[in-house]
Amino acid sequence: MSQWLQKLAHWYDRRQKLKQPWQSLRYVALDIESTGLDPKKHQVLSIAWMTIHPPVMHYGNAQYHVFSHGQELDLGQSPTIHGLTEQDFLHSSEPKQTFAMLSRALNHAVLVCHHKGMDWRFLKHIEAQYGIPFKPLAIFDTLAFEKNKLERNPQQPIQGGQLTLSACRKRYNLPNYHYHHALTDTVACAELFLAQCYASKLFKEPLNSLLKNFS
Predict the structure, then answer these.
(1) pLDDT one-digit tens code per residue, 37-61
(2) Are 14 and 111 in contact (CB under 8 A)?
């Protein structure tokens, strides 16, 4: 019974926090670069995250970690993979310690990512592998938000490539970055999130009403 009461209390606390104006919440933008799309078969190469207190992005507290998985990585013909060189893998982070830091960062925060499907799948796999819980207040997907926005105009069906991070940023006149690097993509996602927030009338409502569509 006590476990059930704890879950109910957590659910109620979460709902109350999400009823606040969106600007008063804390957000954590995140990006994961991996060797593939399936967390059961592929490995996380690098991860980055950064805290946002709208409208401030905390660059100084951003975290960026690379994982060599105890092996020398053979890049073959390519000098880089996801913006990483062999030199980068010489300074590998310890996974369990890194993910414990991320767990603390996500506590009482809204996770922000571009295409939550992949990032959240990897986080849930890490959670099971290391026994480290990831319990953000909610997840905000910048891709899903943009998709929902474009779908409101049925006269112009969504075309291929319109939902990439680069294409979404372009619609808000944000600068073009070199992508597929975890830290760069984290910054790019955070900037897109804030641009979406301040450009949208929807964000005059509590965030809780939006997360029904985008979490």
Answers:
(1) 899 988 898 999 999 999 999 999 9
(2) no
What one-character-per-residue DSSP string does 98-120 give? HHHHHHHHHTTSEEEESSHHHHH
Helix (H) or strand (E) holding 141: strand 138-141
CB 44 within 8 Å of CB 30: no
Assigned token pair, 110: 């809204």
Q: Is 50:63 a contact under the CB 8 Å cutoff?
A: yes
Residues 148-172: b if buried by 16+ CB within 10 A, e if exposed? eebeeeeeeeeeeeebebeebbeee
In Å, what is the CA distance from 29 to each residue of 9, 99, 112, 114? 26, 15, 4, 9
Task: Flag whether pLDDT at 80 surpasses 60.
Answer: no
Which CATH code, of 3.30.70.260, 3.30.420.10, 3.30.428.10, 1.10.10.60, is assigned to 17-214?
A: 3.30.420.10
First to last CA, the chain: 29
For residues 69 and 41, give the distance between their C-alpha atoms in angstroms, rounded to a whole number. 14
Three-state DSSP state, 33:
strand
